[in-house]
Design goal:
The protein is an all-alpha fold. It contains 9 helices and no strands. The relative contact order is 0.11. The model has no long low-confidence stretch (mean pLDDT 87).
């Protein structure tokens, strides 16, 4: 890690951790007054997070696109920015940060425990297709994460609605119908960007490895993830899956995306997506 990158990384991680603790406090102790303040506190963490990425770019000469640490750094940034954008447009959607911020804390902590060392870009990554492929991959990851967060909020609010004394914090969240609609919209957006990501990756693979598809472990698991979300759209549109069933499905489905980004290369070292420095 570069010197300033390390400083800004830890500043961002500490801010996110404090915010995550505050969100948990607001739910457990039914204190809805801190929600908006914590949301803007997350914005402060995002600024430090952005500075860490800029510092790493300055030190390496390329954007952080490969390796578990860089996946966590950039993936977390896209998730936070997606959350801030949603909350900025619609105030009740600030509640999405209750789910997304703790996830980013875990991601960044895990990434730091891997190899955060500075490395030059591998020769195989020096192509415009990298930016197209990875950009849409992060867009899909951000959208799927927001769908998962909407699903968690739906399940919590639905459960609370059946209790005699309801948590006032949940009253400021979007309605159940609105959350249900958001789940579907985020999944559709993620599925479209996921499709572009896979197509761009195939074109990149043709130039790099000589074929559009190699049944590489990361490719295969990305296909599994794409199929899972495609099935969720099919179940919603043609079979009327809504509410609780759809919420549970998108919460579980995010695990396939996390495995694609982090799990496969953690277990399989022979993947074509493990890029070595050249």
């Amino acid at each position: 890690m570069a010197y300033w990158e390390m400083i800004f990384f830890w500043v961002a991680l500490v801010i996110y951790s404090l915010a995550a603790g505050g969100f948990i406090y607001s739910i457990v102790f039914k204190n809805d007054r801190v929600m908006t303040k914590l949301f803007w506190f997350v914005l402060l963490g995002c600024l430090a997070h952005t500075a860490a990425i800029v510092a790493r770019f300055d030190a390496t000469g390329h954007l952080p696109w490969s390796g578990h640490y860089e996946y966590a750094l950039m993936g977390g940034w896209f998730i936070i920015c997606s959350t801030l954008f949603a909350g900025w447009r619609t105030k009740p959607l600030q509640s999405l940060a209750i789910v997304t911020v703790p996830l980013v804390v875990i991601m960044m902590g895990y990434g730091y425990l891997q190899n955060p060392g500075l490395t030059p870009k591998a020769a195989s990554l020096k192509t415009i297709w990298l930016y197209i492929h990875v950009y849409f991959a992060w867009l899909a990851f951000g959208a799927y994460t927001l769908a998962m967060a909407s699903g968690v909020l739906y399940l919590l609010k639905q459960r609370d609605s059946k209790r005699p004394e309801q948590n006032p914090t949940y009253e400021k969240w979007p309605s159940l119908d609105r959350l249900d609609e958001l789940i579907f919209r985020y999944v559709v957006f993620g599925f479209i960007t996921d499709t572009i990501m896979i197509a761009a990756g195939g074109l990149w693979a043709k130039n790099l490895w000589g074929s559009y598809w190699n049944w590489d472990p990361v490719e295969t698991w990305s296909l599994v993830s794409w199929l899972v979300y495609g099935i969720s759209i099919h179940l919603r549109v043609t079979m009327g899956w809504r509410g609780t069933r759809l919420a549970w499905l998108v919460v579980a489905a995010l695990s396939t995306v996390i495995i694609s980004f982090f799990g496969v290369n953690f277990i399989v070292s022979s993947s074509l997506h493990v890029f070595q420095v050249r």
